[in-house]
Amino acid sequence: MNPVKRILVAEDQTDIRDLLVLNLRAAGYEVSETRDGLSALAQHTETPCDLLVLDLMMPGLDGLELCKTLRAKGDTTPILMLTAKATELDRVLGLELGADDYLTKPFSLAELLARVKALLRRADQLRVALAAQASSNDASTTLVNGELEIQPVKRLVKVQGEPQDFTALEFDLLMHFAQHPGHVYSRAQLLSAVWGYSHDGYEHTVTTHINRLRAKLETDPLKPEIILTVRGAGYKMRECPVTKA
Length: 245
What we know:
By secondary structure, the protein is α/β, with parallel strands linked by helices. It has two domains: about 5-125, Rossmann fold; about 135-245, Orthogonal Bundle (Arc Repressor Mutant, subunit A), CATH 1.10.10.10. The chain contains eight helices and twelve strands. A hairpin with a 2-residue loop joins strand 8 (about 155-160) and strand 9 (about 160-165). Helix 7 (about 185-195) crosses helix 8 (about 205-215). This protein is a positive regulator for the phosphate regulon. Transcription of this operon is positively regulated by PhoB and PhoR when phosphate is limited. It comes from Hydrogenophaga crassostreae. One of its GO terms (biological process) is regulation of DNA-templated transcription. Keywords: DNA-binding, Phosphoprotein, Transcription, Transcription regulation, Two-component regulatory system.
């Protein structure tokens, strides 16, 4: 039997926090709660959880700063950001600092639970995949596409021999492309394959991550040569054959 997943909810609005805690517990999760970022950091440090649900605006330490702090420490725990702001800038900021996903208030509880389930499933799949790769004969395999090198087990990416830092989602998205060079994916297909869910209105999350990949991979992100746009269809990795070193 799989252990019960532990979720920490950090939200300063009592009514929203209570609603989240009630429904997450009803869904079978073990849930702890707090109203501020500093307390959330202390709780998660003392007893690490499987998923963090963070409000963007909290007293003491807001969701963005908490996310940034955890990622700087190498903490890869999935983070779902909640925000009352609907501007693209706020969404991009959350993702740039390492959040795995976000929901804009007001949101449906069904959608929240779907996102939580998808993030936890991704984390479990990643652990299983890493364990399988580490024990296989191909554990030392490196995927090579031109000047791009990817070491799946170490989750290491090099561009022209220089290591580049990638968040968990960025790496998974890059691997999806690298394993299928030349294959064109729509944003909806990528959302389903990499994020683990499909929902209208959130495909721009994919666009943001594509832009982040290009910023780290391309010599000129405005004239990409690795992750290409196929007008009217989606995106693909260039058809330079991926070799195994």
